[in-house]
Amino acid sequence: MDLQLYRAHSARMYDYFLGGTTNFAPDREAAGRAMAVFPWARTAARANRAFMHRSTRLLADRGIEQFLDVGTGIPTSPNLHEVAQRVNPRARVVYADNDPIVYAHAQALLHSTPQGRTAYVQADVREPEAILRSAELRDTLDLGRPVALSLVALLHFVPGEDDAHAIVDRLKRAMPAGSALVLSHGTPDFAPAETERAAQVYQAAGTAVRMRTREEIAGFFDGWQLLDPGLVASHRWRPDDGDDRDGEDGAGPGGATDAQVSAYAAVAVKP
């Protein structure tokens, strides 16, 4: 398998921002260029990861037992199944990603509780049918029962507006009533110059990026009911008790500002 270690990959850059070790010289070089123009990249990555943890706990608490995580990224504990299975040991999780090195480390994603189950699909979000028709998904999830569909920090890597909406609409149609959509997405709304320069770094490294406005991101939730507090900066979505006080100088939970996070996040339920 060609791990493509000669080129930077967004999943491995994200791993670097999170302080992980599954990244290589091209990833670190591109990440360094990104941090030179968007110095808060590590803060944004941590805020996004924390949103994934909080939203997963909430949905598991609400009784959802099945999760489909598309754009999984490098395994970084606690992974989604670890968070969900701490709440409900019976939780079942399917991960999907297109980075071959994620596949190489996928065993870390398969350490389920005895009561639950996890599976991994090597697939690209741009081919949702391949994900939905995969044997791994069909053997693990029951699409007749509610599923939490996780598209966290993913869709800004699908630059075509029609393509992005077609992908989300196809995945949403496959989910039954009571399912949830968990989504976070980079935005230029808070720091337009810095996010534009960061997007250019990714583009130069071979990964197209499109940051979207709040209005554009809201369209991905059409037809589903947003949970409180709606579509907000990712660190402001139901912050943990220890981080629920806004800081000084416009800082939000955890001391981060909206500009430093530069991402929106929300969870919606299918009626």
Measure the end-to-end span: 42 Å
- Overall helicity: 25-40%
The helix/strand class is alpha/beta
What's the tally of helices?
11
Low-confidence stretches: 242-250
What general form does the structure show?
Answer: globular
Order of helices and strands: HHHEHEHEHHEHEHHEEHE
Please describe the biggest sheet, giving its number of strands, its sense, and whether it closes into a barrel: 8 strands, mixed
Compute the average pLDDT: 92
Question: Concise description?
Answer:
The protein has 271 residues and is of the alpha/beta class. The chain is built from 11 helices and 8 strands.
Element layout with pairings:
Layout: H1 10-17, H2 25-37, H3 41-61, E1 66-70, H4 80-87, E2 92-97, H5 100-104, E3 117-122, H6 128-132, H7 135-140, E4 148-152, H8 161-174, E5 180-186, H9 192-204, H10 214-218, E6 225-226, E7 232-233, H11 258-261, E8 263-269
Parallel strand pairs: 1-2, 1-4, 2-3, 4-5
Antiparallel strand pairs: 5-8, 6-8, 7-8
Helix pairs in contact: 1-2, 2-9, 3-4
Descriptive report:
The chain has 271 residues and is of the alpha/beta class. Helix content is 38%, strand content 15%. It contains eleven helices and eight strands. It has helices spanning 10-17, 25-37, 41-61, 80-87, 100-104, 128-132, 135-140, 161-174, 192-204, 214-218, 258-261; strands at residues 66-70, 92-97, 117-122, 148-152, 180-186, 225-226, 232-233, 263-269. Strands 1, 2, 3, 4, 5, 6, 7 and 8 form an eight-stranded mixed beta sheet that branches. Helix 1 (10-17) packs across helix 2. It is globular. The model is unreliable at 242-250 (pLDDT under 50).
